Every structure is written in structure tokens, then in C-alpha cells.
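=== RUN LOG ===
request id: a7f3
mode: sequence -> structure
chains: 1
length: 780
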Amino acid sequence: MGKRHLLATLPLAASLLCAGFAAAQPGAASGSKTAEVNVFIGTGGDGHTFPGATRPFGMIQLSPDTQVRHFKQSYPWAAGYRYEDDSILGFSHTHFSGAGHSDLGDVLLMPTSGELKLEPGYPERPFSGYRSRFSHKDEQAEPGYYAVKLLDNEVDVELTASERVGLHRYRFKPGAQARVVLDLRASIYDWAGKNLWSRLRLRGQDTLTGMRETRGWAPGRQLYFAIRFSRPLAGHQLMNREEGVEYRGFASPGKNPAEKVVVEGKALEAALDFGQLGDTPLLVKVAVSSVSEDGALDNLDEMPGWDFDAERSRAHDAWEQALGAVEIEAPQPMKRMVYTSLYHSLLAPSLFMDRSGQYRGPDNQVHQADGFRFHSTFSLWDTYRALHPLLTLIQPEQRNADFVRSLIASQQASPYGILPVWQFAGLETWCMIGYHAVPVIADAYLKGIRGFDPEQALRAMTASAEYGPYGGLQHYMKYGYVPIDLEPEAASKTVEYAFDDWTIARMAEKMGKQDVAARYYKRAQNWRNVFDAKTGFVRARKSTGEFRTPFNPVQSNFGSDYTEGSAWQYSWYMPHDNAGLVKFLGGDAGLQAKIDQVFDAKIDANVYAHMEDISGLIGHYAHGNEPSHHVAYLYNYAGAPWKTQGRLGQIVASQYKDAPDGLAGNDDLGQTSAWLAFTAMGFYPVAPGTNEYVLGRPFVERATLNLPNGKRFTVRAVNLSSANGYVGNVTLNGQPLARSYLRHEDILAGGELVFTMQATPNTAWGKDKSARPYTQTAYQ
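=== RESULT ===
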């Protein structure tokens, strides 16, 4: 899900060290990968990324939040933080990276000094609440670490994290009264009545536990937490602000460990007093769990000590190892943009189970992971395209197997018996369309990733593809397409279901199940039932057979014929069968001309203004949203890779930059970033499940993949410059490469792919039909 790209330019001062932060800077070491990451890319405009501290695929995303927002204004603050803001509300422990929807923002803590304020206050009114102004010159962030000076509250804040624990370090002004406010009300996501219930429990003089159940994007979400302080409380107030029920004062539990202070309600808040600390910092550890308060307490023990600098160093090392899967040589700012893209690609799906292996599933019950680590936050409509294929190259086999096993476990626990559609916190949101867990599983299996039961996986895949009540599937199976008079967004659902079906067929065929493969290969051709050869567009059809009229290819509305797009964006979505598209459009020249029209169209700026997700426009091409992501690569299927190379130059130059507003739309849990990571290396997975990558052109001088199997695959660009944007020739391991695609096994074998760049197109390379990428039906 994307949104319009804001073109405002903002100063980036992330490299400056906050005053009072004395810790060494691990990321500053020569050759450090983390030093090449600008975590502020995407925090402005509508990238919806967050700058806070987390680990690769970590359960905790500890980050600043800058706004209280109501449902109708939640979209701009979907990640909690916007670079354009100048005050911070507090620091919460769960966030989405680049999502097009708001939720999370759990366990909001804010250190304060001076007069106690229990309301957040207003950004335009300094000192009106516990929020505080800040300046970007006093802000620093790198993977695994965030720091800022709170100007009004006179506190220096540092954050780092392990997988399950967030660690805060607060330095108060000498002589100041050190306080921490904990706000469990609707927090930063102020949906009307979002909080169903919450609880706070004081355990001794240094520990709080609690829970919050919400009915936001994922109804019935339960979040438990444990908070431990490095110093005992000097006083406290635990309050239910909604009902006016209030408990004040400090009551030591004494010798009886069962004696605890507990408050429950829908609007809980705590004011925690630590007296005057002098030069001694206050440290706070926070762990979360979806299972129980005891689970959160056990997770807290993942970080047994109070050595902030050591934990920060461990987070840095974890990111160095993860980012070290790719070695990039390129001038700035491209090098920084690519490493930042890799960083954003390593945030989700996120770990979502306790140290005990327990987690909460889509049935809202507690389950036990056996032999795998359960992950959630699957933005599958976005991420099956490039993110998951990228992770098969840069993450260990076990991590990818964990993703697959998490999807299968979710299907087994689903009340509907289907794989996740858009899942977070183990729960289903039903957001977007398709059954796109299917291509994630199939692509992993076809690439040789094991560690899961393929029979079990295939059953889960076919169960999802044949669950009639979901998304008009009963009509799709009856008519061979989704009828628009029976189901909204029918045109896009048909073509996306057809691709998912093809990946089922591919996996079934690999497993030797020819009957299943034949059935789904046939279903994979259903895209033809909604393609109108007369107009050259995918169109919605009625159950009576005719295309819906009147037809306007630029029309786009939520719930109309297309999902977050128009016919101009959706008519090229049959990535498994582009030879069929070429034929429908009258041959190679017809497809080339049609894609040229997509990019070269002169359109009114207001045509798509009502659709926040159609953004990053080049003509009708919308890079800010996923349906367009493969379109530039389609020229290869019509024998014109040189046109792909030219269009990629347009896209990279206009849709990415090393600045807070450096993403054209939502990053969508890493998909937009994964597009750049692939494209910068010179290839892209147009159709996951083919085990092929379509060649484009590189944007870096050298990229080396340190593969999970221990081998190294290098891409090198000779004569790369701004003037040399076309590929003259390509060699693989020293031999000329005539085909315009790369096989997965070519990469796994290790070796070197070399692009020789030049200023003019080579219109002969990749032209022959034998040189073109896979399609289900043969080239004519």
C-alpha cells in the first residue's frame, strides 16, 4: 500500500552526536555496514518507516512517536514518527516499518522532569503536556540505536534493543526530579474505544507488568509487558484516568511476595518517581509477550544485565552480520541508499514468540512452536514480490524455513483453515487481496529451502486456493474469473489468483503431483478471461459474461474493479505468462508500445489524487505501489532489454534519494526497499517461482552476495557512470551471456556476472526468443 510522494526537502542531521551521549560509536568504524545506513530514509513523506532501535526481524521495535492521532488522521503517522514533526510524544516498543495502516505503538514511556503532566499535550503548545520538543541536530540513529535530547523535559534519551527487550538510558539534568510517565490509554493510535481492557501490576520496588487488549486493525489483540528499572521507585501513581479511579503513593509489597499493587481499566496511566539521580543515568528494560505477564518477565531475562553500551554493541554486531550478506561498492549516495534498502528489508516478518516457544495464533489461543521460531507481520500482498525472494538469497535457510513453518502453523490454527492474508501479532487483518502466502512457500521450496513438510505445505496452499467464502473464490472457481457484479475489485483479484495458482502448480509438479499441477496450471490461465484484446486492458466482467461498461482505464476507487490501482497499473499482471500478454497485444512491438504508453503518458496531476496509494508517478506507472513494480522489466519479454534499462534509470533517479522523503510511497514492510536492492544489483524476480531473475542494469560498481551456502556471487559493472546507462554486453563466469535472465542456480553456484556499460543501447542483445525469460505458454 502506497501514498503520494511529498517533495519537500528536509535537512538531514542524523550524523550529529547528541550532547551528553558519551557511549562509543560502533557504527563509525571503518568499513562498517551499519555506518552506511541512513535510518531516516522513509521517515518523511509517506515512506512510513521508523528510526528507532531494533534487531534484524526483532520482536521489539523501540522508536519515538511524534503524534497522537485519531483514526481519520492516522495514515501519515502509521510508523509513529514523522521527520517533519518537532516534538516527541514518547517512546513505544512496537511499530510497523512502512505499512499503509496504523496500529501497534505499545507501552509508551516518556521521561520527564519538573512539573508532573499526565496528558500528552499539543505539538503547537510547548509545555502543555508530557511531550517535548526536539531538534534533528540533537538526534542520532543507526541500526540498533537511537538517541535524542528532549529539550523541554531536559532529558537525554538513548535506546537499543535485543530481540525481545528494549533498553532505555535516560540522563536527567543534575538536580532535576526524575520521572517516567507510562501511558496505556489509546496511546499513539487513538482509535475511538480501541482499548478493550488493560492492567498494571507493581511487583516490588523496581518492576511493573501489565497487559492491553485492543480492537484496532487486528481485533482482540493481546499484548503483555514487563518493565524493570535500574533503580527502585521513590514513589508512584497508578491511575485509571477514564473512570477517575486512582491509586496514589508508594506501598512497598513488604515481605509477602503475593502482595502486589494492581489497577485495571480502559485508560491506565502511571507516574513513576525516582527522585534526584545526579549524574547517574536511569535505565529501563521492557519486554513484551503475546502470551502472559509471566512470559514477558521471562523474556526480560533475555537481557540479564544493565550494560547499555554492551547491548548497543551486540545490536550493532547483529546488524553488521545481517548486512554483511551483501558487500556493495558504489559512490554516495547510491551506496547509502542500497544499504538502507537492505536494512529495511531485514525488519519483517518479525519474531513473535516468547523464549519458551509460546505464541498467540490466529485463533487467539496460545500455541507452542516445536523446532522453529514463529514469526508474524506478514504483509504478503506487498512482500511476496521481491522481499521474500531477496531473503532467500541473504538470510540463512533456517530463517526462511521459519517463515514457511510460521505460515503453515497459522493455517493450521486458523478458524477458516487458510494461510495468512495480512497478519500481524499472529492475528488476521484481512487486508488486501490474493492468497500470497502461496508464492512465498512455493518460491522457497523450488529454490531448495527445506526444514518444513512439503506435503503439509501443499495442503495448506490448496486449502487457501479453494476456500470459497474468501474474496469471491467460489465465483472464481465457477466462472474462471471473479465477476464484478458479485465481488468488488474483481479484475485484480482474478489476475492475482491466477498467479498464485501457477505457483501451486509449479510446486506440485516439482513434488511429482501431476494431477494437482494440471488443475492449477489450468487455473493459472484464468487471467485471459479478464483481458480485453480490443482495448488492450484487463477489465472486470459480469457473471453474464460481458465486460462492465462504461470503461475508463484511469478510473480507480477503493472497492471498484481494481485494488489500489487502475487498468493502467493492473493490465500487466500475469508475470507467469508474459508471452500470452505479448500475443494479446499483437506481438513484441505491441507490448513495447503499450508499456511505453504507461511511462510516457501525460496525465493531469489530479487524476489519482483521491487514491493515497497511487504515488510515485511516471506517467501511469506508480512506483509507490506494488502492482507497478515489475512493469519496467516486461520489455525483456518482448526482446527489448535496452528499454528496461532506460526505464530503470528513470525510476531510480526519481523515486529514491538519500533523504527523509527518499521513498516514493509506503515501504510496505520492505518491499519497496527490496526492489531497489535487487535493481541496484542488476536483476529482479518478476515471477517468484520461476527460479529466474530478469536482468536489468546495475546501479553499483560491485555487489557481492555472501550466500547462505557459503559461496560468493559477484556482480560487477564495467564503465558504469551517469552517462553509461545501457548494457553493452554481459558475461557469466567469463563467458558471454546471451539470455536476458539469470537462473537461481547460477547465483548459488557462485561466480561473477559482469555488465559492460555504454552510453547507447545494444538493441540486439536479448532480442531472440531463446534469450527471453520463462513464461507458462511458449513465445510465438
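=== NOTES ===
Residues 2-25, 250-259 have pLDDT under 50 and may be disordered.
Residues 583 and 628 are 21 Å apart (CA to CA).
=== END ===
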